[in-house]
Specification:
Blueprint lengths: L1 E9 L2 E9 L1 H13 L15 H13 L3 E8 L5 H18 L2 E7 L4 H15 L6 E5 L8 H12 L1 H7 L3 E7 L2
Helix pairs in contact: 3-4, 5-6
Length: about 180
């Protein structure tokens, strides 16, 4: 029984990252992530950080021993929503296959559409009784910071991607 935490990033391609944790690791990882916040900061969001801080955060993430799974989808001339749906349609069955029973997705203005796609996937896999999901905000769920960090670093490429490579355990490239 594992838990997944999902966020996205857009960098010419649509990226989704899911960080997978065992229940025993949830509380210690939350605490470690909270310690990364500077005074007055309510969350970690890589696009708001400077480069030296980003290096510090990625180094700390590497030390946590997390497993990140990245999904990439072309955007091209199609709506980002289609790329997000493609990613969700790949993420959900993969998570089911690695024994994830709960998925937390960063809440945004697309929650309703996400629910429809996740429900479709669960119905196909016939596992809706063994898999739960919800949307939450990164200000209330620090574990959503980890996929944000990894998606940002992977999407940025170069040395940033190299710094995330120890934590990104798989990359799935989807074709539209």
């Amino acid at each position: 029984m594992m838990h997944g935490f999902m966020d996205e990033s857009t960098r010419g391609r649509y990226l989704v990252c899911v960080v997978v944790l065992a229940p025993v690791d949830l509380s210690p990882t939350r605490q470690a992530l909270k310690k990364l916040c500077k005074p007055g900061q309510h969350r970690i969001h890589m696009s708001s950080e400077g480069d030296s801080r980003r290096r510090e955060i990625l180094s700390a993430i590497d030390q946590l021993g997390l497993q990140g799974h990245v999904y990439e989808s072309d955007i091209g001339s199609r709506p980002q929503r289609q790329a997000r749906d493609d990613c969700l349609r790949a993420v959900v069955p993969d998570l089911v296959n690695i024994n994830v029973t709960r998925l937390v997705i960063e809440s945004c203005d697309q929650d309703r559409q996400d629910r429809l796609v996740v429900q479709e996937c669960l119905a196909k896999a016939e596992v809706s009784d063994r898999f739960t999901y919800c949307h939450d905000r990164p200000t209330t769920e620090p574990l959503l910071w980890a996929p944000d960090i990894l998606a940002w670093a992977y999407g940025k490429g170069g040395d940033w991607r190299r710094r995330a490579n120890g934590t990104v355990s798989s990359v799935t490239r989807l074709t539209s």
